[in-house]
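WARN  no MSA supplied for this record, continuing single-sequence
INFO  ligand: 2-oxoglutaric acid
INFO  echoing inputs
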Amino acid sequence: MSDEVTIGGFGGSLRVDNVQALAGRVSSEIPERYVRPERKEEDAVDVNGHDVSEIYSIPIIDFSRLANPVSSKEETAKLHSACEDWGFFQLVNHGVPEEIINRMKQNTEEFFKLPLEEKEAFAQLPGQIEGYGQAFVQSEEQKLDWGDILFLGTLPPSVRQMRFWPTNPTSFRETIHEYAIELKKVSDLLLQKMSQNLGLEPEKLYDLFNDGIQAIRFNYYPPCPSPEKVLGLSPHSDAVGLTLLLQVNEQQGLQIRRKGGWLPVKALPQAFIVNIGDIVEILTNGRYKSIEHRAVVSNEKERLSVAGFLSLRIGRMVEPIPELVKEEGLLYRSITFEEYVADLFKRVQADSRRSQASEKHFFPPAPSASGRRLPRRPPPDPPPNQTWVRPTSQIRARVPPGLIDPHQSCDQRRPAGRTNPRPVMSATRADHADCTNPRHCD
Ligand SMILES: O=C(O)CCC(=O)C(=O)O
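INFO  complex generated
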């Protein structure tokens, strides 16, 4: 194979303590690197003075109704509004055999229960993001997540680095393989329906992602004696096309950004929680939103989840689809997938040195079998007097007090009459003063 593509190879994580083992040792005092002072302030924000968890629940899309000619139209319209207004939905009746879902859950639990040394046989190698370890620790100052991961490239089969695929439990490799195939079937239909909803050729998004890379990340969040001080997973958006998340046990913990607060998501058993990633946000010129999310932990029970990421193949362009660029003009610059990832990687490194939360998900450019890196071009400059809008993953996850949350991608990013998109990093509440969209501005 002359141009073998793998997910590792561009950069990895610094080695830090295994959190599952650490959780077994600490009784009350949490090591400082895990303490997130910002949680106090952020968790105090609720939506309109109400308990967000009581008011909102993310949309539920019935996959069987999407596929059924009788109900497809209505359910497809529901899907469209979920993608536009929420960027998140739960997908039920998705058709993945229950037996595969249950085996995936069981194997995942069994793997994380193994003694540390056994899991470490599949540990990340220096400079690699695949394998067992932690997500993307880039500096000694960076705050750390209260969780461990196993990250694997799954599709196409040529991206698989089997040295990271656990052999215990014995059925795990087969389960991951079968699950990956099922996940692709589900995402294929979703992409077709999304294309239809966007007024594109039905196969447009499907074609773009069909030869793309799929990866799976297994998350293990151990119980923590002071759960209110830590984060299982830092705020981030997903630098991929789509994510399909399966919560493994009944312990909840996913929260999404909504109206300036953190909205807890109650995962339905057997459902996938689907979210739009940054690449789809860019392809749709911001029409579908990639929403920031995070995971919190419990003091009683561990939480496990399995996130399946669908991304592009190396060499594809990440740019708005021309048919979707309307009067608002181009909001994102064109960039190759490998430039996009390299750019993201640089930003994460810079952020980590500032000891802030970092973006986790990216697919680095793969060295070819000959070891030669794919050619890189410098990113183009924007047209005169214009600044590009940054995709969500490239915007700081944590919003300094007084600034608008960039994930509430308000129309005011680009007020009428302005020809240049506003650099969202510097948007203030005053900038959004006359926004009429209740979803965007408080
Ligand atoms: O565990 C969760 O609920 C969130 C997982 C997630 O966001 C991720 O793996 O990217």
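DSSP finds eleven helices and 14 strands in the chain.
INFO  checksum written, moving to next record
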